[in-house]
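FIELD: query
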Amino acid sequence: MSLSIVYIGEITGKAGVFALKSGLPELRNRYKPDFIVACADSATGGAGLGVQHAVYLRKLGVDCLTVGDCAYYKPDMTEFYPKAAWVIRPANYPYDNPGRGWKFFKTPQGNLAVLSLLGQASFARVHAENPFLTADRLLGKLKNECQTILVDFHAATTAEKLTMAAYLDGRVSAVLGSHAKALTADARVSPAGTAAITDCGRTGSIQSVGGMNPEAKIKEYMTTLRVWAQDGNLGLEIQGCALRIADSGRAEAVDSFRIPCKESIDERNGNDQSN
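FIELD: result
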């Protein structure tokens, strides 16, 4: 029996949390997932993940949250990592850093391993190990416990993501790219049985700049002055991909999706935790 997994593209700001809450029932009805993973690296204020959102997203029904270069942007979350077994930060951060870089999860079809890796290009503030070498070091341990391994590769460049997908081809069930917040059209399953997509997109405002208010970003590019951009709130949707994995750990199918949000953010949601 195949395992159905849904990966939700990077949740961006309060608009992203709202869109997920609104669209999750339709997502469940359409794909009937056994397991849901979501990238939450921008869930709180458009940069990082705070404790409140980590707990709230879990209560909504997300089984695993991944973070990337913004893993330690929120001090409260840094302290909370030991208690947040459902949150996975990049495994190639220094060994003693708070949090865990991979975890086994139980599903109706057996164990599933989720491994997070951070790319090396364009992350000047982060000092992480080589993600390719980290993958080599960990895969043997993971394969001893289960056949189904999902890799979230949080990287900035298409070249590095494609290289990682090729490097892990046939060794893991899926290599799913995150960070760019732009859904790519290259979802595929290789002959070796590994599903891959360069980027799973974002959940939040699509009529925006990476989920942020476009007017503020335009001003920033025109003047070179840093402008604090608020969340965009137009054209909300959930993006991501749905996977089907065989008991052997080989991917059988992967399809990207876009689910428009049928509701809009208004004043009635002022007290909602999604804000």
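FIELD: remark
The chain has six helices and 14 strands.
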